[in-house]
Amino acid sequence: MLLEFKIKNFKSFKEETSFKMIPAPKIKDLEYSLINKKVKGNIIKALPVAVIYGPNASGKTNIISAMDVFRSIILKGNIKNNEAYTTPNTAVDRLELIPNIESKENETVDFYIKFTTKKLLIEIDLKIGLGKFLQEEYSRSILNEKLKINNQEIYNRNSNIVEIGKINEISKYLIKCFSKDVLEKISNVNLDKQELFLNGIFKTLCSKEIYEIINNWFENDFKIVYRSDKIQSFPISDVKDKSKKYFVDKMLDLAGKDFGITSTNIAYPIKEDKNDIEPLSLIKLENGKAGAVIPATIFESFGTIRFLNIFPMIVSTIKNGATLVMDEMDASIHPMAIMNIINIFNNDEINKNGAQLIFNTHNPIFLNNNLLRRDEIKFVEKNEKGSVHYSLSDFGTSGKAGVRNTEDYMKNYFISKYGAIENIDFSNVFEELEKEENKDEEDL
User: Using the 8-state DSSP alphabet, how is residue 322 labeled?
Assistant: First the structure.
């Protein structure tokens, strides 16, 4: 489960910014919903849900983009550009888009993450030199890379120097071939300034098992969906009879009926190429006539199609105890459906494996003290320093700025008590347009 994620000099976030999924001190809201994981005899608590609010262009999506970029760097093991676009998030493939537009050549782009998996508490710190914004020819390098497990430093890489730390902390996972001194000597000779130490030398000479634990979490348990309107999910259930042209996924069909599908059933074609699998609408006709099978995109609403693409990811996340981060998950979907999904993540009888859901939104209906804790309500706004992130719990409970859990969060948000909202007035545009039209008439 994700505990904390930090960035600095990433797009609109010039200053260091920390996104926390750790319960805020002294906050007792909805305590039953908290996730509890045991690591080395200690209970670590985490939030199951976080919802991010803020005006357009404030930086909400940039937090998700940063998670996506960092995940990609860890999985591919380097800070080189990809030759082809692999995702709607262009910054994943073109790292020169990352630095803040006002960044200087010597400013690093910083990432930090803390998470738990396999009963281990893992922290990765990464500082990379990418030059200035859009500086494609800059000689990139990894300036610092640090791994900590269970609060013990395993290694610390500064540019081309690696220091091996307390590897006895992971002794049962180690490849017992080299002493600490020999590991350092080999590492310092073979370091590539653009390659992660984790994916190369550490994996090969220190611990392939630890590398695989970390890699598996990033690949399978840290799911980032940038532009959720672009995703296409696969059915929940496996196909048992492949002799047929299509099959009804009972779980997804049931969820679709609860959501309010128009067709009789939702089915999926049976094909080898999963990228070619799109939902079908099965329609039973009256008077004994044969039914119809047509693409659901023709028969169902856009909101229904979005739900059918999102829901399998929700099920998979709950089942595997993963962390799912989605950009505007709720777009085109009725808020009651999203509220029910939030409640599922808050329900420890359903969410037994400690799954987490993080998404940004413009819908204020989720600002509800019966739905979210104050530390689960996140905000992003822009000031003269760039994007700034904070939680509702950061206001405290006392004084004029204090926020109590009995307040009407939505009402107070609209009167700008919490910030992260803008009053927008387009009337000046139309006034200017009228002036231009009147001027044109006078010229005639």
Answer: -
**The pairing of beta strand 323-326 with beta strand 356-360:** parallel
* pTM summary value: 0.92
Give dist(CA 23, CA 407) in Å, integer. Answer: 19
Q: Label residue 43 exposed, middle or buried (CB < 10 Å: 0-12, 13-18, 19+).
A: exposed
DSSP code per residue over 35-80: EEEEETTEEEEE-SEEEEE--TTSSHHHHHHHHHHHHHHHHHTB-P
Q: Does 179 score more than 80 pLDDT? A: no
CA 347/CA 367 separation, integer angstroms: 18
Rg (CA), the chain: 25
* Pick from 185, 135, 123: nearest CA to 160: 185
pLDDT for the residue 224: 95
Going from the C-alpha of 38 to that of each of 41, 118, 166, 346, 354, the distances in angstroms are: 6, 10, 22, 19, 12
Copy the structure tokens of residue 89. Answer: 């998030």
**Which residues of the chain does CATH 3.40.50 include?**
1-227+327-444
> Would you mind telling me the total number of residues written for the chain in this entry?
444
Q: What tokens does 428 get?
A: 């000046």
Q: How many whole angstroms separate alpha carbon 170 and alpha carbon 120?
A: 10
For the chain, how long is the longest CA-to-CA vector?
A: 89
Q: For the structural domain made of 1-227+327-444, what CATH number should be given?
A: 3.40.50
Residue 281 three-state SS: strand
Q: What angle do CA 20, 24, 29 make, to 5 degrees?
A: 120
Residue 120 pLDDT class (50, 70, 90 cuts): very high
pLDDT-wise least confident of 73-77, 185-189, 230-234, 399-403: 230-234
- CA–CA gap between residue 436 and residue 419 (Å, rounded): 35
